[in-house]
Amino acid sequence: MSTDTPNVTGTTTSGKKSKTREQILHAALTCFAQKGYHQTTMDDIVAESGASKGSLYWHFNGKQELFIALVEWFFSEMNEEIMHAWTEEMSASDKIKSMMMVVLESSQQIIPFFNVFLDFWAQTSEDEQLRQLFDEMISDYQTRIGQIIEEGMASGEFRPVDAPKLSLAIFGLVDALFLYEALLGEKIDARNSAEIALDTILAGLKRQEDL
pTM for the complete prediction? Predict the structure, then answer.
């Protein structure tokens, strides 16, 4: 997932508002990464973004709303890439691997901003809105992977398994590798480890007669 601000063409009011909002989100990401959620002030974000304080508060009522919008924005961008990660002609195995590689690559690109997501996870247990957002995100990925697993079972590519539980395990595995790489740096090759793990899991899903 690119962290570059998308190009916004035209001079319409809605276009300008969208560009300003993205500008503020990028600035918030930088500030939260440098200082953490609690130490970052709205004035810090104003200074980093170059937007006026009035513009900032026009888009966001406060820091918490901005933080939630930032997390939603990140996952929306990643979901957009996941939607184009495979074609219908691919096997179920290739669809799962393509999807999870997008998740991993997106995660790797935000390692410099990992403090933002540590704050997100830390606050999830305390904030009902964040808890719901996290639950929706996990449920969405679990459903997507589960549907592909069920598709593979229906076509005879995969042996019968508990699709919902396996899909959660696959997503959790890649997520954990990203966490290790963020914390330990070059000691962890998350991408290569994820590919090996996914290949092993997908091989285990194959029908015995195909092995």
Answer: 0.75
